[in-house]
Predict the structure of Small, acid-soluble spore protein H.
Amino acid sequence: MDARRVKQILSSSADIDVNYNGVSVWIDTLNEDGRTATVHLRGDSDSKHSNVDISELNEV
């Protein structure tokens, strides 16, 4: 995924399914470097937040 698409997903009101390593995640923010994002497990708002490379995010 690229930074442009991450920004679109973040600004959308639609429920867009995104996977990281085959696991469904919510994107919380696109980090300032434009190459990483903070995500957490979908369905578990208390889950640990992780910084991941956006190239490893896949829209389902």
